[in-house]
Every structure is written in C-alpha cells, then in structure tokens.
Design a protein that fits this description.
Elements (H helix, E strand, L loop, with lengths): L1 E8 L6 H4 L3 E12 L2 E11 L6 E12 L4 E13 L7 E13 L4 E12 L17 E15 L2 E12 L5 E2 L5 E2 L1 E11 L2
Antiparallel strand pairs: 1-2, 2-3, 3-4, 4-5, 5-6, 6-7, 7-8, 8-9, 9-12, 10-11
C-alpha cells in the first residue's frame, strides 16, 4: 500500500492568482496487496473562487487481472460544487468499465463502456461559477485495437460511439444538431 498527500495553490493554478488564494488538498491511496488486484483512490478539494464556493472530486478505480491475457478495469468519479452564491449545490459523476484481451503478443482488443451524468446543472462540462451549464447524460462505447509493432512502436485504432440526451454537443455531417456522434482515431505511439 502507498499514500500521497498534496497541498496545492488553489484549485486551478492557471487562474488561482486571479480568483483566490485558498489552499486545495489532495490525496492518493494505492492498494496492490494481492496478486491480481490493484485499487486506487484519488481526492482533490478546495475553494474554486474567492466567493467561498468549494469543489471536491473523488475517484476510485480498480484493475483485476483474470489471467495473463484478460483484465477488467472500472473507474468511478464523483464531483460536487458547494456553496455557489445564488445557486444550489451541483453534482456530476462518471462510470467506466473496460476489458482488455491480449489475443497474442502482437494484438490486444479493449472494449470500453462509459456513462457520464452532468444532468444536475450541466456544471462539469459547460457550466461554471457564473451561469448554469447545459445539462446532459451521455453514454459511450469504444472499441480500441492495439497493435504491438515491436521496438517500442505501437499502432492504435479506436472506434467510438457517443449518445447524449441533449443535442447541444454533437453535430451530424450536415452540421445540424445531433444526439449521437460516431468517430474513429488512428495513432502511432513510440515508447522510449
């Protein structure tokens, strides 16, 4: 087991000098005491602005190795912004589950399912401290294909489909608002 604790100059260092001088705190706890299971917990919390509002985000993720070729991972995030002047407290969350199957030494496949709930006030993505955001719940399915090309080189091809209960964020090919977006990504990575 390992633990780390942090003191940060405000929540967001990019704007901390402009918005507040408060200290945010962070923590990371890792558990890897069993052969096939790794657990990780993260926390960050502190003032978001000089107006006294407080934000905290907690995350827990786990990876379980079923055997040498198959592993399952989950990730859960819960965020909360409290004491916003003139507004109610807001919450958002996300949940992800994925499976990695190492088919052979060269190829692995990773299906992933994600749910993101920002329907409280749409604060996490498009909102902020000055105005309500655009509410949404979104679900995504991704299929990642990883190809080990040797000598630190890897190719990745991802196919992804996102569906939202709001048509504010996605656009169809004719640029009209859409509730769904399909995409793909191709990349080469080099590790050294």
């Amino acid at each position: 087991m390992s633990a780390s604790f942090y003191l940060l100059n405000a929540w967001d260092g990019r704007v901390s000098q402009e918005q507040n001088q408060a200290t945010s705190v962070g923590a990371n706890l890792n558990y890897f005491g069993t052969k096939n299971l790794i657990l990780n917990y993260n926390y960050i919390g502190g003032a978001e602005a000089a107006n006294g509002s407080h934000r905290q985000v907690q995350e827990i993720n786990a990876v379980y190795r079923c055997n040498d070729r198959i592993s399952i991972a989950i990730d859960y995030i819960y965020g909360q912004q409290a004491k916003i002047p003139g507004q109610t407290d807001v919450r958002w969350s996300s949940f992800t589950v994925s499976v990695k199957a190492q088919i052979n030494d060269m190829y692995s496949i990773l299906p992933r399912y994600e749910i993101f709930d920002d329907s409280d006030q749409g604060f996490a993505i498009s909102g902020g401290l000055v105005a309500p955001g655009l509410k949404q719940k979104m679900a995504s399915i991704t299929l990642a294909n990883n190809f080990n090309l040797g000598d630190g080189l890897e190719a990745r091809i991802e196919l992804r489909s996102d569906k939202s209960d709001s048509n504010t964020f996605f656009y169809s090919s004719d640029h009209s608002p859409s509730y769904q977006q399909d995409s793909y990504t191709a990349a080469f990575l080099y590790a050294f």
